[in-house]
From TrEMBL:
Protein name: dTDP-glucose 4,6-dehydratase
InterPro entries: PhoX
Recorded superkingdom: Bacteria
Pfam families assigned to the protein according to its UniProt record, in alphabetical order: PhoX
Organism: Abyssibacter profundi
């Protein structure tokens, strides 16, 4: 049922049952292979992973990181549609105690780390992996190593670019010119560009950076900075004789006027950005693109790209009652830039406009520009660099719509509509609802859909509706608004991706209770298929089907396919049982590779 590369309106697999077992489920007729678990050596051979957590920091630095998240496949060679050879780029969101030998890291009585080399290992488990993959004649994938494989970690030198680079806002003891910083953390949803680069998102950086200021200034408190963060407290080992270039000190942002070498008061301003990485150039330095704004970044996917027009990226800030943003390039898309690497990044990502979404009751909405010329922003900030650095505060001031935790967004290739997951928000109380977030105690989340006015990436108005509400099947119809059944009940939508055929893939994180007691999962639906030239909108709830169920305790996050739609990559994060090595082994996040037994296209 292929239609000139676009889809007919039907999925060809039957919805599979959800369940709580410690295993991966895919539909009958599909194969799966598990690869690249945390600790896999990047050269495929050494240093070998030690299942007891005894690998050193230096070993972790050349092994796959922990807690896989957003991911994208980049065919080799660059610009080709090769489907049996390419680079997988994988985010590693965070770390946990399984990294360390015994029962966890060494700590003092206050729960602060005491062993610099353990902290270093923790730092290296974060970031991004670039891994070369090849498919053999038998259909099995394996790692290759012709020079592309690398780790970017929470210690890697990274350039700053765009309006905030070089300003006082990002001057630290690491770089007094404010043109660079060190490391990326909490890389969650994925982003990408039309010119072959990857955008790693920096989500919960406030879990790592701390401050002892009392009171915490608004510029830090609005981003959640606190005295202890999530407890990592890497700065506790600062000053160790082995410390290099503030690798530990920079995680404490308390002003230190007395000791310039320890003054990292602005270090928090060097996190919370989108980080552009060129996977095809293993020697290139990643770049934080400050023009796109500083929030707790989740996904960052472009909308439809048109020659001669600006490009829009849709960007989420994943906190309860935070916002949905759009960045629009000043430059118009030139297809000659299709393999332009980081130079194209400078052209499109360093000069643009930042907007935040305001949803109205009548199904319309407005993109409000966050520009220093807006009176409410001019009254609070002195420069556009401040507006971008404190984009959350700017969005508060213009009255953006508080959402139920915006996670990934993605664009329907058949219609240009933008879909956004709102994962859940149990703190939204009755009376606090708004049109776009209409359920109090929204335990199961929903997916909202926007259409730009005139299909224009630079539009400042849009229309919207709610595509589907998460729920368990037996919930009262006042909550199970979309009429989900045991075949497609879900909660906490997070990862979201339209493949180029128009199939929408929905992944879940920490699903609220389901009647099937199911683990987290991935579902598929074709919201708008084409039959001939005719646009078909199937009965959504009948067509929403469960394709994949993860092992116990995991989150299913990160998905991509090869250009021929015959191989799919799905990440398993924080499995809670013994996946993938089996009973008696520590669980490890990993990538599951799915194909059809008959070699056909997945799902169609
Ligand atoms: Fe890391 Fe917003 O999930
Ligand atoms: Ca997520
Ligand atoms: Ca999530
Ligand atoms: Ca997660």
């Amino acid at each position: 049922s292929d239609n000139g590369g676009r889809t007919a309106a039907k999925l060809t697999f039957d919805s599979i049952a959800g369940g709580p077992e410690d295993l991966v489920r895919v539909p009958p007729g599909y194969n799966m292979q598990v690869m690249l678990p945390w600790g896999t050596p990047l050269n495929g051979v050494a240093p070998t992973f030690n299942g007891d957590g005894t690998n050193t920091a230096a070993e972790q630095e050349v092994q796959i990181g922990s807690n896989h998240d957003g991911m994208k496949f980049y065919p080799l060679p660059a610009g080709s549609n090769t489907s049996d050879h390419g680079l997988l780029v994988i985010n590693h969101e965070y770390s946990n105690s399984t990294l360390f030998a015994g029962d966890g890291r060494s700590e003092d009585a206050d729960g602060k780390p005491t062993d610099p080399d353990e902290v270093r290992k923790d730092i290296y488990a974060h970031g991004v992996s670039v891994v070369e993959m090849v498919r053999g004649m038998n259909g099995e994938w394996s790692m290759a190593n012709t020079g592309f494989n690398r780790r970017i970690t929470a210690a890697t030198p990274i350039d700053l670019a765009g309006p905030v680079a070089g300003t006082d806002l990002v001057v630290t003891a690491y770089d007094a010119t404010g043109m660079s910083t060190r490391g990326t953390v909490n890389n969650c949803g994925r982003g990408f560009t039309p010119w072959g680069t990857y955008l790693a998102t920096e989500e919960n950086f406030q879990g790592y950076q701390t401050t002892q200021e009392d009171p915490v200034p608004e510029e830090k408190s609005r981003y959640g900075l606190s005295a202890t963060g999530f407890g990592y407290q890497w700065a506790a080992v600062a000053g160790d004789p082995s410390e290099q270039n503030g690798e530990f000190a920079r995680w404490d942002t308390t002003p230190n006027a007395a000791t310039a070498a320890l003054d990292y008061r602005n270090a928090a301003n060097t996190f919370g950005w989108l980080v552009e990485i060129d996977p095809y150039d293993p020697t290139s330095r990643p770049v934080k693109r400050t023009g796109m704004g500083r929030i707790l970044h989740e996904g960052a996917e472009p909308g439809r790209v048109f020659e001669g027009r600006p490009i829009a990226w849709y960007m989420s800030d994943d906190n309860r009652f935070d916002y949905f943003y759009k960045y629009v390039s000043n430059a118009n898309w030139d297809p000659a830039d299709a393999n332009g690497g980081l130079q194209a990044g400078s052209k499109y990502l360093d000069n643009g406009r930042l907007y935040v979404a305001k949803f109205a009751e009548d199904g319309t909405g407005e993109w409000v520009e966050l520009d220093i010329s807006v009176p409410a922003l001019a009254a609070r900030f002195t420069s556009q660099a401040e507006v971008l650095t404190y984009a959350r505060i700017a969005a508060d001031l213009v009255g953006a719509t508080p959402m139920d935790r915006p996670e990934w967004s993605t664009t329907d290739p058949n219609t240009g509509e933008i879909y956004l997951t709102l994962t859940n928000n149990t703190r939204r109380s009755e009376g606090d609802e708004n049109p776009a977030n209409p359920r109090a105690n929204n335990s199961h989340g929903h997916i909202i859909r926007l259409a730009e006015a005139n299909d224009d990436p630079a539009a400042t108005s849009f229309t919207w509706d709610i595509f589907v509400f998460g729920s368990n099947a037996s919930a009262d119809p006042s909550f199970n608004i979309s009429g989900l059944t045991l075949d497609n009940e879900f909660g906490s939508p997070d990862g979201l991706w339209f493949d180029a055929r128009g199939v929408l893939w929905i992944q879940t994180d920490n699903g609220a209770p389901l009647d099937s007691d199911s683990n987290d999962q991935m579902l598929a639906v074709i919201p708008a298929g084409l039959e001939g030239d005719r646009l078909i909108r199937p009965e959504t709830q009948a067509q929403l089907k469960r394709f994949f169920v993860g092992p116990a305790g995991c989150e299913v996050t990160g998905v991509d396919m090869t250009p021929d739609y015959r191989t799919m990559f799905v990440n398993i994060q924080h499995p809670g049982g013994s996946f993938p090595d089996g009973p008696g082994n520590r669980p490890r996040s990993a990538t599951v590779i799915i194909s059809r037994e008959d070699g056909g296209e997945i799902a169609l």
